[in-house]
Amino acid sequence: MKALIIGAGVGGPVLALWLQKIGLEVVVAEARSSLALTEGAFLGVAPNGMGVLDALGIAGAIARRGHPCRAFTFSNAAGRAIGRIDRSADERAFGWPLTMIRRAALHAALAEELERRQIPVHFGHTLVGVEQSAAPIEQGARGVEARFANGASLRADFLVGCDGLRSKTRAVCLPDCPQPDFTGLLDFGGFARGPKVPVPPGVNHMVFGKRAFFGVFTTPAGETWWFHNGPAGDAPPRERLLELHRDDPPWIPELIEATPHILGPWPIHELDRVPAWSRGRVALLGDAAHAMSPSAGQGASLAMEDAMELARCLRDLRKPPAAFRAFERRRRPRVDRIFREAQRQSSRKAPGPVGAWFRDRLLPLFVRFGAAAQTEAYSFRIDWEERAE
Ligand SMILES: Cc1cc2nc3c(=O)[nH]c(=O)nc-3n(C[C@H](O)[C@H](O)[C@H](O)COP(=O)(O)OP(=O)(O)OC[C@H]3O[C@@H](n4cnc5c(N)ncnc54)[C@H](O)[C@@H]3O)c2cc1C
Q1: How far is ligand 1, taken at its centre, from the CA of residue 279, in Å?
Q2: Which of 33-47, 56-70, 199-213 has the highest mean pLDDT?
């Protein structure tokens, strides 16, 4: 069988590697004109995502380009410490730590692996339409034809939309599907050197600021990676961020000032009401099927898990429509659980003065539950040897 994958973000390349592993011919089509080595800020690949990459033999390549996270710490707008989650035992417990990595470095590592395994990626191919043949797959018909904005078309036995939050695959194949919901929060990020940040390397430090949320991670080489989540507004990014953090610990505005390029905004959306993750020979995976707030730090890792599970279902059930249904059945409960947790965490980020008062007092309790939910998410593994039914 030949598989066509739409999107070379996170889930697409990982799926391509898994499908090649089960012996399929794979082609990837990506809208971007080339590998976007300057795109996005950074993300954390959780131990469960690293486990998927490990099973492909590429976790080491990702770990080498990233940095392990050993703890999360939390403080309020006054700079008072209000919680800590120790993650120093993760590597021993799960094989890999949470790995912080620049998005561009993750894309580059995955693209290199596709190239090494000779999986073709067609850049500059923006999907605009999909036709499914009515002929049964047993009759040898190449079941799907994808059309692209550049006039090209590609045929395959099945197609998987790994094309993210604004998935065209989803729009074409499930036209009645609800649109993603905007959470009201915008994300910005940046990389800086210089100002002293009171956070040791290897710690993800989160500040529940007076008007917005700020996260920071410092690398052993002295670089500071940061992100901001806050309400939407019209002012230019730097001005707006300085204004939103003016009453927070002074190192935050200093860091914003010292950042050469402020990246974003990324409006944060959620999508959990996709009625079905497939139609005939077309399936959805990752954010195209279920996008969640980045607060749980699991979107990329779930896309990687999806890829492994979908490959396992195709290996064992062979016919794409049946494999796609089994895939959805197996994945929905886990995705839904993590979606709710991400929503809970997101709702604490901009709570208003009264909410903030309660949050500061209840955070130690939230941290305990949050740590347990995180550990549960991190410990999940797909048993590749087990047969998918
Ligand atoms: C600010 C922010 C921070 C985040 N932090 C984390 C984190 O720390 N940890 C974590 O696990 N997750 C995080 N996430 C979530 C994570 O980035 C996503 O869940 C993950 O990237 C989903 O992977 P994907 O492959 O489904 O989609 P994407 O990575 O979005 O990839 C989709 C790809 O499809 C391509 N595409 C789109 N439309 C078309 C088309 N019509 N034709 C062809 N190609 C197309 C796009 O160009 C893109 O390359 C964060 C998200 C945001 C916005």
Answers
A1: 22
A2: 56-70
